[in-house]
Specification:
Layout (H helix, E strand, L loop, with lengths): L30 H10 L15 H11 E2 L20 H17 L13 E5 L6 H11 L3 E6 H5 L6 H14 L3 E6 L7 H5 L1 H7 L7 E5 L9 H18 L7 H10 L5 H11 L1 H9 L17 H10 L6 H14 L4
Parallel strand pairs: 2-5, 3-4
Antiparallel strand pairs: 1-3
The structure holds adenosine-5'-diphosphate (ADP).
The site of adenosine-5'-diphosphate has 16 residues, from helix 4 and helix 11.
Length: about 325
C-alpha cells in the first residue's frame, strides 16, 4: 500500500495508454492484451490506478514475459555451496529468510527498527544459484516472481527501458507480495565502471543505503574442500534421484566430485544431463529405435557416463574470475 514508484512520472502524452476501464470496443487492443489487462482489474472491473496511463503492450509484456506465476523452486533444491570459492549459501539462505521472507510473511512484526531493506544484491559467478535464490524467495513467501535482465533494458528496449520499468513496478504492485529480480545489474554500468565495481559503489553509495550487499563468496579456505565436494555430490544425487536414476556408490560419487573441482551448480546440472544420456545412447546402439525403446530396459547412470560427460562439459568459470569476486567480497561483502 505504501508503494512509491522508483521513477518520477513526467506526464507526457497519454495516447495509446490504458485508461480506467478497458473499453469493450477498443479495437486498437488485441485480444491477448485485453485479456491480460482484465486479469489485473480489481473486483470493480476497473484497472488499478498504478496501471493507468501505461502502455497496454508493456503491461502485457511484463505479465507474459517477465512475471513468473509459479517459480517452482524450493529452498531444499538449492545446494549450500558448489564451488571452492563460493561458500556461504547457507549464510545467504539464513539472511534472505530473515531479511526478506519473514518480513513478507509478517509485515506487522517487521516495522520500525525492524523495517526490512528494500533491495538485496546477490553477486557471484554465473550458474551458482542467484536466480534460484530469487525464485525460492518468491516460492517460500508465496510471492509473485518477476525476472528482468538489466542488459535487455539497455539493448532490446533501447529508449523504452524507463517505461518498461514503470510498467514492471506497476504490475508488481498489483501482484503483491512480489519479488523483482533484476539480473545482470552490472550491465547498467558503463564499461569503465564495470572494470571497477568499487568506484560504482562509492559513487552510488547514497542511493544504495537500503541495498544489502550479499555475497556468496568466502575468502577463507577453512571451508574445506570436502564441504564443497559434498555440495556437488548433493546436486548429482538430488537430480538423478528425482528420476530414479541414482545408483552410484559413495566411492563413485566421490570420484566424480574430485573430477569436478571448480564446477558451478549449473555446470553440475549440465554434467548430470549429459551423463544421463549415456544409458539411452547405449540402449539405442542395440538397434531398437527411439520410439520402440522400453524405458525399463535402460540401465542406470554409471561412473563411465560421467567420465564421458566430463569430456564434453567443462567448468564455465575460471579461477581468475573467481578471484575478482573474492576481491570484491573482501571490500564490500557481508560475509567475513
Ligand atoms: P545464477 O543466477 O547464479 O547465474 P542460476 O540460479 O540461474 O545461476 O543457476 C542455473 C542452474 O544451475 C539452476 O537452475 C540449477 O539447476 C543449477 N544450480 C546453480 N546453483 C545451484 C545450487 N547452489 N544448488 C543447486 N543447483 C544449482
Amino acid at each position: 500500500g505504501n508503494f512509491v514508484p522508483p521513477i518520477r512520472n513526467n506526464g507526457g502524452s497519454t495516447s495509446n495508454m490504458t485508461s480506467r476501464v478497458i473499453g469493450k470496443n477498443d479495437d486498437s487492443m488485441g485480444d491477448s492484451t485485453r485479456k491480460c489487462l482484465e486479469m489485473l482489474c480489481g473486483p470493480d472491473g476497473e484497472l488499478p490506478e498504478k496501471l493507468r496511463n501505461l502502455e497496454p503492450r508493456l503491461i502485457e509484456h511484463v505479465s507474459n514475459e517477465i512475471m513468473d506465476k509459479d517459480p517452482n523452486v524450493r529452498w531444499d533444491d538449492i545446494a549450500n555451496s558448489c564451488q571452492p570459492a563460493i561458500a556461504g549459501l547457507e549464510h545467504a539462505k539464513k539472511c534472505v529468510t530473515e531479511m526478506v521472507i519473514w518480513p513478507l510473511l509478517r509485515p506487522d512484526i517487521f516495522r520500525g527498527c525492524r523495517s526490512p531493506g528494500r533491495g538485496l544484491l546477490l553477486f557471484g559467478p554465473p550458474g551458482t544459484g542467484k536466480t534460484m535464490i530469487g525464485k525460492a524467495i518468491a516460492g517460500e513467501a508465496k510471492a509473485t516472481f518477476f525476472y528482468i535482465s538489466a542488459s535487455s533494458l539497455t539493448s532490446k528496449w533501447i529508449g523504452e527501458g524507463e517505461k518498461l520499468v514503470r510498467a514492471l513496478f506497476g504490475v508488481a504492485c498489483c501482484r503483491q507480495p512480489a519479488v523483482i529480480f533484476v539480473d545482470e545489474i552490472d550491465s547498467l554500468l558503463s564499461q569503465e565502471q564495470q572494470t571497477d565495481l568499487k568506484n560504482w559503489m562509492k559513487q552510488h553509495g547514497g542511493d544504495l543505503q537500503n541495498v544489502y550487499i550479499f555475497p556468496f563468496l568466502h575468502q577463507e579456505s577453512h571451508c574445506s574442500m570436502v564441504y564443497f565436494k559434498e555440495a556437488r555430490a548433493w546436486i548429482i544425487r538430488n537430480l538423478l534421484e528425482k528420476d530414479g536414476l541414482f545408483k552410484l556408490t559413495e566411492e563413485e560419487t566421490n570420484i566424480v566430485c574430485k573430477l569436478t573441482e571448480g564446477y558451478s551448480g549449473s555446470d553440475m546440472k549440465n554434467l548430470v544431463k549429459d551423463a544421463s544420456m549415456g544409458p539411452l545412447r547405449e540402449a539405442l546402439q542395440q538397434g531398437v529405435g527411439i520410439t520402440k525403446l522400453n524405458k525399463e530396459d535402460m540401465r542406470p547412470v554409471i561412473l563411465k557416463d560421467f567420465e564421458t560427460a566430463l569430456q564434453e562439459v567443462r567448468p564455465s568459470v575460471s579461477s581468475s574470475e573467481l578471484g575478482t569476486y573474492e576481491e570484491w567480497n573482501r571490500q564490500f561483502g557481508s560475509l567475513a
